[in-house]
Specification:
Low-confidence stretches: none
Number of helices: 0
Radius of gyration: 13 Å
Largest sheet: 7 strands, mixed
Strand content: over 45%
Number of strands: 11
Mean pLDDT: 97
Shape: globular
Order of helices and strands: EEEEEEEEEEE
Helix content: under 10%
């Protein structure tokens, strides 16, 4: 069964840094474009960043460009999101996502809270 398992979320102060991890299993991780999404309380889930299977192309939402870095390790089947200069507006549950054939594969999410 295809799945993602995210980890690394926590409470962090504004201006701080955090790195999220996401392990994929049950599908060909190395051949998929994979994305990070987030959902803040009371808001719709939104796309944050995406990375192609070969890591050649990385794209970011304007709200995180210059602060977040997406990367992947296809040997370890792991996706990362390095988050720097965090702001209270970054508070959300962060999810991994990939389209695997006709299926949308989501992780269970990891909570990031930015607060002093």
């Amino acid at each position: 069964q295809e799945q993602f398992t995210e980890s690394g979320g926590s409470l962090v102060q504004p201006g701080g840094s955090l790195t999220l991890s996401c392990v994929g299993s049950g599908f060909s991780f190395s051949s998929r474009l994979i994305s990070w999404y987030r959902q803040a309380p009371g808001k719709k889930r939104e796309w944050v960043a995406g990375i192609t299977s070969d890591s050649v192309s990385k794209n970011y939402d304007e709200a995180v460009k210059g602060r977040f870095i997406i990367s992947r390790d296809n040997v370890e089947n792991t996706l990362y999101l390095q988050m720097n200069n965090l702001k209270p507006a970054d508070t959300a549950v962060y999810y991994c996502y990939a389209a695997v054939g006709p299926r949308d594969v989501w992780g269970q999410g990891t909570q990031v809270t930015v607060s002093s």
